[in-house]
Amino acid sequence: MCPDASDFPRRYDQYRDSSGSWTFDIAEYEDDLEPLIPSSTSSDPTPEEAYQMAVYFEGFIERQQRTSNWSDEALDRFEAFESTLEFEAVATALREIAEDNGS
What we know:
Blueprint: H1 8-11, H2 30-33, H3 47-66, H4 84-100
């Protein structure tokens, strides 16, 4: 099960600045994302790109949690991610981009 949405602000604080903006650039994860998403990854993905990436991330998290494999080792295939918390934060950021832009 994904963390409760009310935990998101506190849970991902280390990935947000004092204004609440994300401290990472989505393009930092380009090498990991590009094989998964048909279009190139940019620091400012379109709502559709953000939605596609968020769906993939959320599905990956759910599959790993279902098999009790949601640990940092589950991310071995993704070089840019250091922890499951970082992976979840990026998924949350992508979902916000998709939803904020009308997807």
